[in-house]
């Protein structure tokens, strides 16, 4: 190999490590988390010890819970995440999955995944889908059955069922723990100081109160 080519290859491999950083590479075939040791009840399974492989079975690599939609929320959205908590075989492999169903006219509010790019396949229905880049440019279109769309890591994206029947989509993530932050809840449901929100959004205290009641997640509502 010519010295020039070697230098180029070295530079490329250095670049690809720094620019395409994702979950760490596996150092063994698989690592079924030994949840006996999950004393702090974390959902981050990658730091648990692995099960002895003699105790691992095919079922550790199969999840059957996405054959049909999950429970629909009051916003007409149902999501079933598939990650090491329900598909242990995914642990340490740097990926995860989701099934989402959307009732007619309903939507998945703008949100982002801090740790993963997502590629979404439309299984059925017509879904207006898009994301916003860091210059505030929107890339959005109606995606139809059989099409895929990619949402780059960390960018805000959204979906709305614009078809005439329930839409079903499958999403795939390049992290076993992509994380999710929903913009409305991040802003109005997290407890950011009211005065700051009034100034940032030009809203009155009464309007802020309205937004809070709407977006504070139910589990922390008293
Ligand atoms: C795994 O289990 C087998 C069978 O019980 C045992 O022989 C082996 O020592 C165990 N391996 C480890 C690393 O504990
Ligand atoms: C839907 O709700 C029922 C009752 O609360 C629950 O048992 C079931 O596990 C839920 N299904 C999913 C996919 O979350």
Write a concise keyword list for the protein shown above:
222 residues; alpha+beta; globular; Jelly Rolls; 2 domains; 5-stranded antiparallel sheet; 4 helices; binds 2-acetamido-2-deoxy-beta-D-glucopyranose
Task: Describe what is shown at a glance.
The chain is of the alpha+beta class and 222 residues long. It is built from four helices and ten strands, in the order H-E-E-E-E-E-E-E-E-E-E-H-H-H.
Give an account of the 3D structure.
The protein is α+β, with helices and mostly antiparallel strands. The chain has two domains: 59-179, Sandwich (Jelly Rolls); 185-220, no CATH class. It has helices spanning 3-19, 183-188, 194-201, 205-215, and strands at 77-82, 96-102, 107-112, 118-124, 126-132, 138-144, 148-151, 157-161, 167-173, 181-182. The strands form two sheets. A five-stranded antiparallel β-sheet has the order 1-2-9-4-7, with no helix packed on it. A five-stranded antiparallel β-sheet has the order 6-5-8-3-10. A hairpin with a 5-residue loop joins strand 5 (126-132) and strand 6. Mean pLDDT is 89; it is low at 14-20. The structure holds 2-acetamido-2-deoxy-beta-D-glucopyranose (2 copies). One 2-acetamido-2-deoxy-beta-D-glucopyranose binds at residues 52, 54. May interact with bacterial adhesins thereby protecting the reproductive tissues from microbial attack. Has no oxalate oxidase activity. Disulfide bonds join 31-50. Pfam families: Cupin_1 (PF00190). This is Germin-like protein.
């Amino acid at each position: 190999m010519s010295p020039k080519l070697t230098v180029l290859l070295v530079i490329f491999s250095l670049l690809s490590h720094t620019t395409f950083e994702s979950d760490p590479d596996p150092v063994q075939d698989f690592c079924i988390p030994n949840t006996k040791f999950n004393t702090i009840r974390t959902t981050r399974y990658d730091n648990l010890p692995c099960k002895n492989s003699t105790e691992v079975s095919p079922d550790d690599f199969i999840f059957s819970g996405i054959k049909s939609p999950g429970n629909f929320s009051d916003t007409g959205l149902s999501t079933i995440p598939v990650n090491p908590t329900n598909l242990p075989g995914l642990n340490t492999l740097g990926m995860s999955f989701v099934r989402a169903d959307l009732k007619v006219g309903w939507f998945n509010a703008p949100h982002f995944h801090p740790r993963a790019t997502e590629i979404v396949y439309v299984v059925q229905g017509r879904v207006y889908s898009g994301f916003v880049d860091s210059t505030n440019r929107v890339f959005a279109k109606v995606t139809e059955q059989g099409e895929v769309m990619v949402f780059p890591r960390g960018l805000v994206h959204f979906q709305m069922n614009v078809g005439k029947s329930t839409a079903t989509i499958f999403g795939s993530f390049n992290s076993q723990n992509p994380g999710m932050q929903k913009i409305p809840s991040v802003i109005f449901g997290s407890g950011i100081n009211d005065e700051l929100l009034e100034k940032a959004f030009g809203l009155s205290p009464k309007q802020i109160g309205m937004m809070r009641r709407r977006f504070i997640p139910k589990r922390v509502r008293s």
